[in-house]
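Figure 3 (text version): structure tokens given as input.
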């Protein structure tokens, strides 16, 4: 069983590429001429035997090590059990080095200016989904999205800044720090200077979003834990910062008199571990 996944037709500066997606475990390269064509994204995937043409599609976002293959391999058993197509994009250090191009969605230029939305890293998720569905004639209309650590940062910002996507469920596990839903705090610690208004916040709050926190993710000396004054103001460690993020979100939703479809779930006796958070997240996928 083989079906061809043709990539978007590219401009003359970028060669046309086409690779196959098929039953089993493999990788393909995605190039987006509408986004960052010069920065290709490898997508590690697993197509289980029980996946149907209209079945669920699930994205997994890797952490700071950019180890997409490891994340895919840790999720294969869950894809087999649930019958979903697993897609794990790799935002490599070569093409998306640093937090600005990955965790922060590549929203800002090196000079701190807001880039075109079509150039954001966030938009690649929608286009990868669209490409896979269209080229393989799948009937799937929505997808779910999970990210751990730096990937969790990506996911919670994806919800904030991309509320009109086809993502039906977003799960952020153990993010290190947050973009708070506060329009008075400058980005990236808040929404200031991002053009996010109350109308967009209402759409964000209406999305199904789960913040998954390990109760033992409390290491204040972790080298990958951001320790700037702004990040420390959110809490001393990942677990505390996650609680504070939901607290502030609930307070704001109440002030705006809107229903918040976000929730926090604590995973007991688990620290900063994707392999131990993944089984909990996988149970949420329908």
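Below: residues designed for each position.
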């Amino acid at each position: 069983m083989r079906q061809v996944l043709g990539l978007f037709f590219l401009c003359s500066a970028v060669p046309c590429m086409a690779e196959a997606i098929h039953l089993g475990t493999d990788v393909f390269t995605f190039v987006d001429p509408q986004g960052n064509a010069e920065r290709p994204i490898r997508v590690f995937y697993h197509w289980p035997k029980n996946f149907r043409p209209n079945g669920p599609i699930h994205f997994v976002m890797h952490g700071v090590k950019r180890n997409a293959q490891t994340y895919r391999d840790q999720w294969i058993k869950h894809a087999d059990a649930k019958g979903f197509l697993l897609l794990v994009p790799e935002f490599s250090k070569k093409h998306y080095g640093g937090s600005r191009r990955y965790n922060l969605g590549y929203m800002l230029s090196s000079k701190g200016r807001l880039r075109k939305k079509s150039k954001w890293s966030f938009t690649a998720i929608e286009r990868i989904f669209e490409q896979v569905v269209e080229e393989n004639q799948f009937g799937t209309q929505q997808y779910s999205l999970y990210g751990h650590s730096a990937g969790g940062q990506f996911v919670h910002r994806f919800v904030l800044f991309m509320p009109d996507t086809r993502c039906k469920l977003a799960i952020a596990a153990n993010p290190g720090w947050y973009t708070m839903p506060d329009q008075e705090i400058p980005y990236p610690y808040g929404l200031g200077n991002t053009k996010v208004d109350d109308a967009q916040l209402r759409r964000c709050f209406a999305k199904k979003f789960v913040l998954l926190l390990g109760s033992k993710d409390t290491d204040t000396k972790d080298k990958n834990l951001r320790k700037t004054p702004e990040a420390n103001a959110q809490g001393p460690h990942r677990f505390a910062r996650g609680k504070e993020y939901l607290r502030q979100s609930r307070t704001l939703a109440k002030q705006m008199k809107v229903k918040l479809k976000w929730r926090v779930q604590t995973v007991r006796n688990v620290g900063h571990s994707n392999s131990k958070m993944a089984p909990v997240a996988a149970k949420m996928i329908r």
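The longest strand covers residues 24-30.
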